[in-house]
Amino acid sequence: MIYFCCDQFRRAAIRGTALNGIDFVEVVDRDAPSEDMRQRILHVHLVNDAGALVLTRDNIRCEGGERIRGIRVDAVTMGLGPQTNVVVVEVDRYGDASPYALRLVRSPTDDRPPADFDPMLSRATFSFKAECPSPFDCKPVCGCSDAREPLPQIDYLAKDYESLLSVMRDRMALLAPDWTERNAADGMVAVLELLAWIGDQISWAQDAAHNEAFLDRCRSRISLRRLARLVDYFIGEGCNARVHVHLAVSADVVPLLPGDPPVVPRRTPVATFLPDAGFTVPNVFEELAQADAVYETMENVPALFARHNEMPFYSWSDRRCCLPRGATRAPLGGHFPDLRVGETLIFEEIVGPRTGRRADADPAHRQAVRLTAVEAFDAGAPLTDPVTDAQVTWIEWAPEDALGFPLCLSAETDPEFGAAFIPVVSVAHGNIVLADHGHTVVGEPLGVVPEPAYRLAPPAACDPCLREAPRFAPPRFEPRLSLRPVTQAEPLDPTLPAGLSLRQEPARALPQVALTSSPGGDPWAARRDLLASGPFADEFVAEIEADGTAQIRFGDDINGHRPEPGTAFAATYRVGSGPGGAIGADTLRHIALALPQIVRVRNPLPSTGGVDPETAASVRARAPHAFRTQERAVTREDYAEVSRRLAEVQRAAATWIHTGSWLTVFVSADRFGGGPVDDAFAGRLAGFLERFRLAGYDLNVDPPIFVPLEVELGVCLLPGFFRSDVQRRILAVLGARAAPDGTPGLFDPDRQSFGQTVWLSPILAAVQSVPGVRSVRAKVFRRLGDTSSGGLEDEFLTFERLEIAQLDNDPNFPERGQLRLEISGGL
Fold first, then answer.
1. Domains of the chain: which residue ranges?
2. What pTM did the predictor assign?
3. 3-state secondary structure at position 30
4. Fold of 10-126
């Protein structure tokens, strides 16, 4: 056979014609009449009925074989029962496992096909072992791989232009020895130089791609980000700055109906100084871009009230009042029923308490708080002062927003300024909205997903008849945003206290980019990665390159949806991030909102945040060790270490107790500031530990075991010092609270923790350092009521692993530790 056809229609062409031919050959094996006749009877099926055709032994040949050759035909019978198109052939013996051919000829000396037989169907291939059991597929295995040709001798160390050109000249000397031209104007020389230049470019690209595969050598920040993600390290792309903005209004701005939109929608731009502009400006990107910084509101403002511009504090007919450091509750002078829980207020000192001048107000005495309670009514009527009938509104704010400084409410100026009484030194500002740095770009076209252009190579197959549909490489569509830097921000949690709402974790910040596709207008959301995205999730990743440009990467229909060819995309994103948007207090002046009632826009406090992207050197130093962070609590020490990751926990200790059929992990937590381990905190800590807990272990959060101390000191004073003054200072030094200057006492809750030994010498040294103390001597040093503890003899007290020493010296709670002083000398 000189050619091979995949589609064989020859049998159908002669069916029903005067010509005949072999359709197939069947070997009778298990159905043979006797054991000796197995594989010796062949049923030759013809395409058409034999009719008057008579074939004899001289017309049939059995050819082929490797071990068994020369098989002869013993008998031929025309017809097999009613099947007149079957010729029964009996051979003298069966053949081996190699293929055989049955051939029809005119005579032993004439190899031509019999008359009226198609020459193409006068021969058929068959196997004697067709019915033999085999563990393999009956489909023939083809081994048609081409023989390997010897490879040319090439110097693969040649990587640059000169070495590549030298290698090609040497090769040409072998292929065309008669070609000796070296003139640069020669066509062949020009071709070699062009190929050497192309090879140099390809070599450079190979080296660059090879470098991108290693953390310590890659140049692309996108490559650095992906490599770091392999070890579960998220690169910090920085974050934008946040600030509280005060909107003063001349009249109340309230929606007419409950379903009306807010008066100040989310993402309303607020800008720094713009020349020749009022407080309200048009929302035009080109005009706002002239400002040094543009912020946008992060939450809706449902209403603005003129009375909330400045709300004075109420002093209950007293004078020279102040809110102490750490305050979380205060009265406002007036009826403010529109204050709501969750609203932010800013306390501000508006005049200098010693001079009465606004210019002398301390800008450091400003703080934002988020309200947790508002009390403006008493039995349905406005809350009033029962003495003066003045209306009062009580407000409370979160402990995390506790006042960080004493806030003067009313004062009397110095004598040189007239000794005048100032009833209002500080006020509370309402109409506060949180804003963050970044200006929105709407509907930037990113182009259309192209049609597939590159066909993938078909899989290697030796079957020439195997036909598969062409496969195309998915089109590359990784558009870039035109403006930079893209804003990076962590989603806002509206329940956080005012101070915490300004803080962001750069590693959790997301690029503020949203895509829409057409046709359909489907939204696509930005994610840090697509590992948790399903095949139908319309999500993408915005990867930031070293120059700050953002490149969009879509999914692959396994992790994230791959957009279809012909899909057009448009991007809405924000521009502005990092420390470039940091601003000082009273810098914002304009709001892009058509609201004439707004008469002033300002930020009483400077912005917070604005972090640069993490440097490549920092990533290379930190990423290789990121996976070493314990992410599963196995031992007791693991539970203690993981508990400390919660911001509220100073230290923790864990205990395993068998509580029936399983173990329960009891976690004892020591909170910062000695905060109580109440149900709310226990729930937060248990929820935080849940992702680290091993299956089969219960979890319970308990308070520490506080051990009160009993300390008695004999103190001798120097002449000229008042005993009461020195005693007050000693109590402050050894106290459980911070001194007036902010210095924590020796037994401050944050200075004592689990199992910590209490030494006597630091106590004596602290007392000795107080001015006026001549000498100090310990008389009692033990656990409260435990006469056997023996602290004086050992000069220290030890505690178990779940115990914390306590010396509050609070007369209301004597069981929390007692400190007695016997003072002699002095005045």
1. 10-126, 161-211, 238-305+431-456+472-613, 310-430, 630-702, 706-825
2. 0.74
3. coil
4. Immunoglobulin-like (2.60.40)
